[in-house]
Structure formats: structure tokens, C-alpha cells
Amino acid sequence: MKDAFKLGVTGGIGSGKTSVCRVFDVLRVPVFSADREAREIMENDIEVMSSLNTITGKDLYVTGSLDRVELASIIFNDRAILEKVNLLVHPIVFNRYCKWALVQKVPYVIMEAAILFESGASKYVDRVATVVAPVEQRVKRVIHRNKLSREQVVERIKNQMDDEMRIKLSDYVINNSENDMIIPAILKIHDDILKLTKS
How far apart are alpha carbons 111 and 6 in whole angstroms? Predict the structure, then answer.
């Protein structure tokens, strides 16, 4: 059996990547969440935990688990530290993803990643779908979901690639504003990839 075809799903914070991936999940397409994997590594990999403390100059594990709020406030205000953390964590995530993808016995798999292009993860996928939504809706979603201030959300959006750039680099775009139906768009992509994998 040949390797599964790989679709990357990306989009800015609050765009609704996870909702989109839930639909793919219902369609029985396995989803690898790069962000969830990165969190798991930072919570459990002893070497990574030690390196994170060194990079940030703080003990981020005072309570026994990662202080994600503290880490976020450091990395979103210091690009150099953000890059060092990414260089530490991303190669491990990609390695796990490649091993995971190899054992999936399906026509195609998905890598869900917020910074698919910025992290270099796009070279591990065959096609990319970008999820977009109006910035105002994204800000509201994230404030509600993560209990962050408006300023914090806007800061994170600024730290990510903008939608225009993402769309240029993508094969598919899924509009996820409150007025858009995401399921028909997802089904269209699903059919398209199944055709590709059969050809």
C-alpha cells in the first residue's frame, strides 16, 4: 500500500480549524493536531522542559505542569524567544507526524497546524486547505474560548501570517464566517482528494 496522501489544514487563531477538522473526522479522515502534539511534548518531554526553562530564563513548571499563560506572554512579546521555542519543538512534532502518517491505512490524512507555513510543516503535506473568517469574528471567538483580552488576541493574530498570504500558498480555502456553510466546502475537498488518490 502506498503512503497516504497528506492534506494540511491551517488558518489563523480563531478561524475555526478545529471545527473543520471535526467534520473531516466524521468522514473518517485521521487528523494529527500539530498544536496539541506540541503541547503534549512541552508538558512531558523532560529534555524539552529543561530547554524551555533555559530559553525563557524562567521556571515554567513551578506547579508541576507547564504554565502556558506565562509561556504565551513571553513568546508573544519576544520574537527571538518564539523562534527558539519553535526550533526546539517543531522538529519533534514533525518526526512524530511522519511516523504517525506511515501507519494510517486510509486514502489520506490531515495535519492540522496553526503555523503550517511559518513552521515549515507545509513541506510534509501534498495539499493545503486554509480556513478563513473575518478578523472581528475570530477575535470574539478567541476572547470567549481562551478568556483572553482583546489586546492579547490581536497580538497573537499579528504574530501569525495574514490570510491573504496563506490563501496564495493554499490549494483550497474554506470560509468559516457565521454566514458560511463549511460542510459543502469540506465535502468538495474530500471528494477532490479521493479522486486524486485514485488516479
Answer: 7
